[in-house]
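The data are passed on as follows:
___
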Amino acid sequence: MLFGQSIFQSVLERLKAEGETAEDEAESPAAHRVSGLGTGLAFDVMQGVSAASQRVGEAYFDNLDLDTAGPEKPEPGPDPEPVMPEHLTRTTPQEVAAELAISAADTPLTLGEKRRAFARANHPDGVAPPFRDNATKRMMLANLLIDKALRRIGR
């Protein structure tokens, strides 16, 4: 900042000076160079190397030999209907309690492990959409049973 000028005035002076240098550069002949690069770029194709091999993004296609790939693959049909896993059919509190096997010897640590293991196998996000209602019921029951056991331990 110059003495006797506000910050705004010094910024305007700086922009004016940069604008003048940009005009000078625009008037000079355009060089086919990358700014800051001391040398020009030259692309040579070596003897015996095909120009196709210089296309890095398409190198795999050259080696695939698509014309002699053999018989065409059939169009994939509609996806088969998902099959409900057997454990998702058990949605009663007694069946879920039997799977959890909560006992009086369980600690909060073991109950947390049981909750996580049950969630890995039964979480609604991990099953096919038609079976999410059953998975949600099972998770709600398991969480309810584990929370009750934790409350009993806390007394």
